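Why should sequence recovery work at all? Because a backbone constrains its sequence more than one might expect. Tight turns favour small or flexible residues, buried strands favour hydrophobic ones, and helices have their own preferences. The token representation captures these environments compactly. In the example below, the structure is given first.
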């Protein structure tokens, strides 16, 4: 199969028929073999009934319905799991993403050999105050921290090589950082394409102001997990040891200075009256706690079922390894 098109949606009953017919027109004109996977994220309107009607008319349309609203990351994860296409394309259901972009996205993956191509809504029709400016700040921060040079990290219109979506795990609110997740999974050939951004025709946005707070926290989480998820002692142990050493050295210096003053007849305050003593003591306590946190993290990581799961691209001269089903071939 050439293309899997994954559409997460929540209360988009007006948009679905128009979007489906538009996608069908584009892929038919280009002769693609395809499937459309719509993931209903606990909608309270008639979205699921419309998906069922569409699937009854076209066997290439498939649907997944959640019992309640889990969020976009969960919808994408289930869509990735169910997909069979060589190229996987994601888009939003609100008609702000144009299906006319599908052929070029497909070509960039197949011919230019990108692992992932992210859309860039260079010209937007959203509110400048509530969406445009915060989006630019968020993307600049994400580029600086992650090193992934994309202008629009959170654009819903993306194309992936099949082995990318089968190798990454999206959860929580991590859909905003799929390019970063892909990079840390070893997929470095990430491209960008300027795409058309259309004004919303029906309904209202499903994302509130809370996405700015959660997005920032999720970025910190994913950077930490990517770098130190399997070796937490490298962070907590190093910082804890440094703090303990500085606190211990300061305490020794205060003690030696007190002894020097007493032996030289120089008046000196009690060590316990010196504010630096409590700073040093606090540093030692925090250092000990951080070291123990790293130690506990290592114990948890050691007992994780994912501790020795690695992505293997290819082998030469040996059979495919299958050590307790831990290795994934991509």
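From this structural description, the recovered sequence reads:
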């Amino acid at each position: 199969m050439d293309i899997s098109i994954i559409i997460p949606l929540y209360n988009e009953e007006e948009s679905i028929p128009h979007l489906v017919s538009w996608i069908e027109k584009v892929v038919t004109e280009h002769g693609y073999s395809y499937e459309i996977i719509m993931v209903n994220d606990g909608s309270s309107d008639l979205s699921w009934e419309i998906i069922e009607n569409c699937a009854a008319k076209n066997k290439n349309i498939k649907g997944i319905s959640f019992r309640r609203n889990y969020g976009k990351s969960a919808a994408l994860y289930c869509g990735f799991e169910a997909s069979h296409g060589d190229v996987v394309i994601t888009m939003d259901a609100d008609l702000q993403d144009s299906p006319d972009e599908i052929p070029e996205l497909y070509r960039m993956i197949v011919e230019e050999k990108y692992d992932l191509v992210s859309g860039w809504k260079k010209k937007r029709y959203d509110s400048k105050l509530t969406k445009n400016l915060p989006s630019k700040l968020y993307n600049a921060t994400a580029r600086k921290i992650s090193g992934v040079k994309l202008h629009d990290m959170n654009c819903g219109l993306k194309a992936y090589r099949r082995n990318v979506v089968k190798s990454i795990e999206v959860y929580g609110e991590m859909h905003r950082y799929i390019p970063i997740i892909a990079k840390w999974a070893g997929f470095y050939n990430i491209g960008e394409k300027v795409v058309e951004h259309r004004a919303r025709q029906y309904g209202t946005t499903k994302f509130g102001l809370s996405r700015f707070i959660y997005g920032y926290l999720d970025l910190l989480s994913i950077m930490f997990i990517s770098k130190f998820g399997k070796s937490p002692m490298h962070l907590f142990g190093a910082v804890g040891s440094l703090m303990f050493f500085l606190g211990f050295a300061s305490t020794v210096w205060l003690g030696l200075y007190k002894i020097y003053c007493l032996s030289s007849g120089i008046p000196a305050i009690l060590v316990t009256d010196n504010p630096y003593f409590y700073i040093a003591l606090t540093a030692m306590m925090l250092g000990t706690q951080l070291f123990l946190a790293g130690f506990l993290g290592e114990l948890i990581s050691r007992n994780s079922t994912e501790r020795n799961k690695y992505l293997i691209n290819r082998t030469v001269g040996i059979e495919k390894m299958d050590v307790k089903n831990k290795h994934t071939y991509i």
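A few observations help interpret the result. The chain has a mean pLDDT of 84.
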